[in-house]
Amino acid sequence: MAEHNEVGKQGEAIAVRYLANKGYKIVTQNWRYGKAEIDIIITFKDQIVIVEVKTRTSLEFENPKEAVTILKQKRIVTAADAFIKEQNIDLDCRFDIVSVLIKGGKVEVEHIEDAFSPML
Questions:
Q1: Where are the domains of the chain?
Q2: DSSP H or E segment with residue 42
Q3: pLDDT tens, 37-56?
Q4: Which long-range contacts (CB under 8 A, 24 or more apart) does 36-42 make?
Q5: How confident is the model at residue 42, as a pLDDT?
Q6: How far apart are CA 71 and CA 73, in angstroms?
Q7: Which end of the chain is more exposed for a tag (fewer CB within 10 A), N or C?
Q8: Does domain 3-116 have CATH number 3.40.1350.10?
Q9: Which residues make beta-bridge pairs with 100?
Q10: Any residues with CB less than 8 A from the CB of 110 and at least 6 apart, and which?
Q11: Is a pLDDT exceeding 80 seen at residue 103?
């Protein structure tokens, strides 16, 4: 497996632990719909939360959270809509980003709640 895939899996595992420690309930991970994938789906209070995880080992090219482009957001929203319909979920929905920076043996996690909204 390519190194960037391993880094991504490591970042997702860190994000899951981080969110669980904050009291979020993990519903599923790596849910696919067509070409789109939702990294983590969680519930918290009265919301379903769709989480995109971005992991980097350097900030040389871009901050991880900046990698969630408009196109990526549209794909995530489409997949979230499909998941919500398939599971017949009747909760408010929120889209978060968890940015994980793994550098020099240190890990920094930033959780951005309500990071973007579905485009109407």
A1: 3-116
A2: strand 36-44
A3: 999 999 999 999 999 999 88
A4: 36/75, 36/76, 36/78, 36/79, 37/79, 38/76, 38/79, 38/80, 38/83, 39/12, 39/15, 40/12, 40/15, 40/16, 40/98, 41/83
A5: 97
A6: 5
A7: C
A8: yes
A9: 55, 109
A10: 65, 98, 99
A11: yes
At residue 120, the 3 state secondary structure works out as coil
Contact (Cβ atoms closer than 8 angstroms) between residue 35 and residue 82: no
Q: What are phi and psi of 51, to 5 degrees?
A: -120, 125
Structure tokens at 117: 């909204």
**pTM across the whole model:** 0.90
* 108 pLDDT tier (thresholds 50, 70, 90): very high
- Measured CA to CA, the distance from residue 119 to residue 105 in angstroms comes to 38
Specify the DSSP element, H or E, that contains 49: strand 47-56
Token pair, residue 114, equals 């309500």
